[in-house]
Amino acid sequence: MDDQARDSGRPTEHLSAPATLVDQPLTAAQKRNLKRAIATGLTLAALVIGLLIIGPKPFYGFAIVVILIAQAEFYKAVRNAGHDPATALGLVAGAVMLIGVFTRGEAAAGLVLFLTVAFCYIWYLALEPRKGVLKDIALTVLGVVYLAVPGSLVGLLAARHDGLRVVITTIAAAAIYDIIAYAAGSKLGKHPLAPSISPRKSREGAAAATVGGIIGITTLAAILGPWNVTQAVVFAVMVVILAPLGDLFESLIKRDLGIKDMGTIFPGHGGALDRIDAILFVLPAAYLSLKLFGL
Predict the structure, then answer these.
(1) What is the CB neighbour count within 10 angstroms for residue 71?
(2) Mapping DSSP to helix (H, G, I), strand (E, B) and coil, where does residue 184 land?
């Protein structure tokens, strides 16, 4: 999610903030945006649960739209920074990945990735030879690998007989870590976790989220999901490692591109990618833990 305390709701802008913002209190505007963020989050949660109750296909259809919007935001941000990804090709590849894995299983992912790279070569061969082609190919493929590959796992989770509980647990696990990190960081944060990447994240917030997250996620997963207590602990440990990495990875991209948010589609949360950055990394944790324990 957004590294400025989820206080976006403004148009994408270039970063100019100092790298030592951890211990600065929220402004009145940021507090108003926080309320908007909470309202948006609750609305999205209700929508997700409602669609899951209807069935995995309606939910996954919504998930595909959100993931493709996030992928489009990524390509737009990269293009605005002066690069030239094959946006149309990347989005088609992303859609094929998301649908292919849902209908044919995870084995479809490798084939789609190969075809994505192959068609990228053809795409750029059709253009005039120029410098930077390899970089643009890499950025096009990154949009698929970063978003569509992990995003496709949510369809496999939703299609399970216990998909409703598994998906809710997975999304809630990312939220639990994020909420604890934000709350603890706001009250106790003094030392930046990664000042050059995300200045508002603190070591104190990360430590609290790690301990509190393991307890909260273990409890939730053992009660709601198919994991027993031991398995839930393993899942929780994976979440508290991967959730902040997902957040920091997007922050690293935004910092490199010189922007604050990927978009403005969700009030208080920025763009679609700002909303799902941690979830994208938690989905493999849920999927792998289920595979690991044969659940």
Answers:
(1) 26
(2) helix
CB 253 within 8 A of CB 247: no
Separation of alpha carbons 261 and 73, rounded Å: 10
Measured between alpha carbons, how far is 273 from 259 in angstroms, rounded to an integer?
Answer: 13
Cα(285)–Cα(281) distance, integer angstroms: 7
| Burial classification of residue 183, based on how many CB atoms lie within 10 Å of its CB (0-12 exposed, 13-18 middle, 19 or more buried) | middle
143 in Cβ contact with 71 (< 8 Å): yes
Q: Using one digit for the tens of pLDDT, what is the confidence trace for 146-169? A: 999 999 999 999 999 999 999 999
Sign of the CA dihedral running 62, 152, 10, 203 = positive
2: left (phi over 0), alpha (psi -120 to 50) or beta: beta
Please list, in sequence order, all residues whose beta carbon lies within 8 angstroms of the beta carbon of residue 274, skipping any fewer than 6 positions away: 1, 2, 8, 250, 261, 262, 263, 266
Task: Round the CA-based radius of gyration of the chain to a whole number and report it.
Answer: 19
Query: What residue type is 227 in one-letter code?
Result: W
pLDDT in tens, 163-181: 999 999 999 999 999 889 8
Amino acid at 107: A
Q: Cα separation of 161 and 163, whole Å?
A: 6
Provide CB contacts within 8 A for 89, sequence distance 6+: 116, 119, 120, 123, 140
The helix, strand and coil proportions of the chain, stated in percent and rounded to the nearest 5, come to 70, 5, 25
